[in-house]
Design brief:
By secondary structure, chain A is of the alpha+beta class. Helices cover about 65% and strands about 10% of the residues of chain A. Classes of the chains: A alpha+beta (about 100), B alpha+beta (about 300).
């Protein structure tokens, strides 16, 4: 079974110069999931690139947390639709 | 080195104020930001130019220099060289040790034009005390390559060597890859922007169907012609599969367009060892032509029995 790696939020913020409050806000808005163990707060490895992306959007474009949530959902839908489109194009080849 | 008109990049006049520049930059950044345009190389390149344009035009000194030399940036180089000779080591630009902050600064984030104009490697630019978050880090561009394989090549795992620049990568292609499927090889793409991680190498498979079968995922489809008599009375036929010929019993009174499934005679399932798709055969009944008088007589007789 694959094991996911976790990183301490404070350690991640130190390394990336992202404010802890920013990550906490993301958590409050349900944009990132925290894992808590013995008073320590961790984030999963898969969330790292997502947090960095949201930080860039927030920092570069001034997008607020509601906006980040909307963008996240739309990018997710876009990715799903691109996948479906690829699948349908493959299926169409049968009839061509 | 191509001249980049920074005013054009931002869509503003030469008389634009600092506020106009800021407004134009923000508007275009929202449109072209790489995080909002994943896998769009064009947007990524335009965003890079946009950042460059903003970096220069939002700085009074740099804008002045750009306005002064513009297209004739080569002369600016000559001028700088002359000035350096005159002023010893105090010239602006060109001195790599003068890179402000320097941390994670990547030369490749700016165009050749920019580097020639203002000095390469960040010379002459203060990046704000090494706070690398002043400019966003971006993962390097993903490189895409297409690998063409025959359908018969994907029956078993394939080992291929791909050359990326000077590097050679040996990859193992699992059996059953789909047409259009992409394999990601992490860290073999372009250099990151502002010290960001390297991009990935995306290999898209183009599967050329060199067989008579049609494919849908791991299942394959074919059409077999059977004689009228085999369809009516049943019998044995030999059909082709991907792994050779097999004998098949046709049931009596088989109708036209009847489909039969040959379990496990399809393609291997991607990353599911020992599992294969099925072969679906559609029977097409071939009616006899050029009937003899005797045959016509017998068919007439048969028709009267119904």
């Amino acid at each position: 079974m694959a094991r996911e790696k976790y990183i301490l939020v404070s350690h991640f913020c130190n390394q990336t110069h992202i404010e802890v409050s920013f990550v906490e806000n993301l958590h409050e808005y349900g944009l990132v999931t925290f894992e808590e163990k013995e008073n320590d707060v961790f984030i999963g490895e898969k969330d790292i690139s997502e947090i960095e992306k949201m930080f860039r959007l927030h920092h570069d474009l001034g997008i607020n947390f509601e906006g980040l949530d909307a963008i996240k959902q739309m990018l997710k839908r876009m990715k799903k639709m691109e996948k479906q489109l690829g699948l349908l194009q493959n299926q169409l080849k049968i009839y061509q | 080195m191509e001249f980049i008109d920074y005013y054009k990049v931002l869509g503003i006049d030469k008389s634009a104020t600092a506020a106009d520049i800021k407004k134009a930059y923000r508007k275009l950044a929202r449109k072209l930001h790489p995080d909002l345009n994943p896998n769009d190389k064009d947007a990524q390149q335009k965003f890079q130019q946009l950042n460059e344009a903003n970096e220069v035009l939002s700085d009074v000194e740099k804008r002045k220099k750009y306005d002064q030399y513009g297209k004739d940036w080569q002369h600016a180089d000559a001028y700088e060289q002359q000035a350096r000779q005159q002023q010893g080591s105090q010239g602006f630009g060109g001195q790599r040790s003068y890179s402000g902050g320097g941390q994670g600064y990547d030369e490749s984030q700016f165009s050749d034009f920019f580097e020639s104009m203002f000095g390469g490697g960040g010379g002459g630019f203060s990046r704000g005390g090494g706070n690398r978050r002043q400019t966003s880090q971006f993962k390097g561009q993903d490189l895409s390559a297409t690998l063409r394989l025959n359908l018969t090549d994907i029956l078993e795992s394939q080992k291929q060597t791909i050359s990326i620049g000077e590097k050679k990568i040996r990859i193992t292609i699992p059996p059953g890859v789909e047409d259009g499927q992409t394999l990601k090889i992490k860290g073999y793409g372009g250099e990151g922007m502002n010290g960001g991680p390297k991009g990935d190498l995306l290999i898209t498979f183009e599967i050329f169907n060199n067989t008579r079968f049609k494919r849908l995922e791991s299942n394959i489809y074919s059409t077999e012609e059977i004689s009228l008599y085999t369809a009516l009375l049943g019998g044995e036929i030999t059909v082709e599969t991907l792994t050779g010929k097999v004998k098949l019993n046709v049931k009596p009174e088989t109708q036209n367009d009847t489909k039969v499934k040959l379990k496990g005679k399809g393609l291997p399932k991607y990353k599911k060892e020992d599992q294969r798709g099925d072969l679906f055969i559609t029977y097409k009944i071939e009616l006899p032509k050029n009937l003899s008088d005797k045959e016509k007589e017998l068919f007439t007789e048969l028709s009267k029995l119904r």
